[in-house]
Write a structure and sequence with these properties.
Layout (H helix, E strand, L loop, with lengths): L1 E6 L11 H9 L3 E6 L12 E2 L9 E2 L1 H12 L11 E11 L2 H7 L4 E5 L9 H6 L4 E6 L9 H12 L10 H4 L18 E2 L2 E2 L9 H19 L1 H4 L4
Parallel strand pairs: 1-2, 1-6, 5-6, 5-7
Antiparallel strand pairs: 3-4, 8-9
Bound molecules: 6-chloroguanine.
6-chloroguanine binds next to strand 5.
Catalytic activity: guanosine(37) in tRNA + S-adenosyl-L-methionine = N(1)-methylguanosine(37) in tRNA + S-adenosyl-L-homocysteine + H(+)
Function: Specifically methylates guanosine-37 in various tRNAs.
Family: Belongs to the RNA methyltransferase TrmD family.
């Protein structure tokens, strides 16, 4: 998979070159490139923002650098070769990012993330992007961040680990919170008693059927307590 990220703070993404995703990058499973939006400006000050038409607080990201960046990274619609990219703009006004979103996006062969800052990006950029690929506005949740960078880091990590070969043991992907619509069961390791706290005896029983049943009950109970919205089917 190819992932391009455009940001005015490219060094935010240095962390993605480490650990899990760093290895996937090195082995060629994941081709991740981070670009500085200011490379597509033409003025001495490398300006990326301007005041909003109609007035109001804050600044808006100018369309021209975004247009050039998307042209360069998405290619012309007639270039052939590559499948049209999926162009993702992190936005608190977008659809909420879920595990199912990560699974869907992990099947694409080219993702482009455009990180907005300030009060947002000139609306015409989204229209222009739609000429080049499928545009998605995606939010991390119902709270406000200063820009899209932290949201994109989270999304790239959630998507990247679902690409075959990125996570060493694929079974570890199945037994996690949200993969089956429930929160995950509690885990324990040695010692069997620690500071007078014993591991639930069932886990030491060797009865694999009973253990599976107990874990399922724990998943349901935790989900009921912490995330009833998941059980109601409205999440
Ligand atoms: Cl994707 N961007 C920003 N700026 N704030 C957010 C968000 C995204 N998701 C939740 N809050």
């Amino acid at each position: 998979m190819r992932i391009d990220v455009v940001s005015i703070f490219p060094s935010y993404f240095d962390g993605l070159t480490l650990s899990l995703l760093g290895k996937a990058r090195d082995s060629g499973i994941l081709d991740l490139d981070v670009h500085d939006l200011r490379d597509w400006t033409g003025d001495r000050h490398r300006t990326v923002d301007d005041t909003p038409y109609g007035g109001g607080a804050g600044m808006v990201m100018k369309p021209e650098p975004w247009g050039l960046a998307l042209d360069a990274l998405a290619g012309s619609p007639h270039a052939g070769a590559r499948e049209r990219p999926t162009i993702i703009f992190p936005s608190p006004a977008g659809e909420v990012f879920r595990q199912s979103t990560a699974r869907e996006l992990a099947t694409r062969d080219h993702l482009i993330f455009g990180c907005g800052r300030y009060e947002g990006i000139d609306e015409r950029v989204f229209e222009e992007a739609a000429e080049l690929g499928e545009v998605r506005l995606i939010s991390l949740g119902d709270y406000v961040l200063n820009g899209g960078e932290v949201a994109v880091m989270a999304m790239v990590e959630a998507i990247g680990r679902l690409i075959p070969g990125v996570v060493g043991n694929p079974e570890s992907l199945v037994e996690e919170s949200h993969e089956d619509g429930l929160l995950e069961y509690p885990s324990y390791t040695k010692p069997a008693v620690w500071r007078d706290r014993a591991v639930p005896p069932i886990l030491l029983s060797g009865n694999h059927g009973a253990i599976a049943t107990w874990r399922r009950e724990q998943q349901l109970e935790r989900t009921r307590l912490r995330r009833p919205d998941l059980l109601a089917g409205d999440a």
